[in-house]
Amino acid sequence: MNIGIAILLILVAAAAGFAGGVFLTRSQVKKMMADNPPLNEDAVRMMMSSMGRKPSETQVQQVFRQIKNSAKQEVSKK
């Protein structure tokens, strides 16, 4: 009987550790993506250049801020 309880406790602890690890990792990745989006200013500049326009620095900064703000709003909705 003691062995059965020990095995059950080990399985419960492993499941709780796994669930806690998944939750913490998920929240850290969301925060990291909000703070450092994979799209940077150079990528925005290249994207605008590929569309056939020469973007000014103001336009690049404006588009980048819009992208960053929309990402933060998505995180706050969830």
Automatic annotation (TrEMBL):
Q: To which species is this protein native? A: Floricoccus tropicus
One term under GO cellular component: plasma membrane
Keywords recorded for this protein, A-Z = Cell membrane, Membrane, Transmembrane, Transmembrane helix
What membrane topology does the annotation report for this chain? Single-pass membrane protein
- TM ranges are none
Q: Which InterPro entries match?
A: UPF0154
Protein family membership: Belongs to the UPF0154 family.
Where found in the cell? Cell membrane; Membrane
Q: What is the lineage of its organism?
A: Bacteria, Bacillati, Bacillota, Bacilli, Lactobacillales
Instruction: Show which residues constitute the signal peptide.
Output: none
What is this protein identified as? Answer: UPF0154 protein BG261_02175
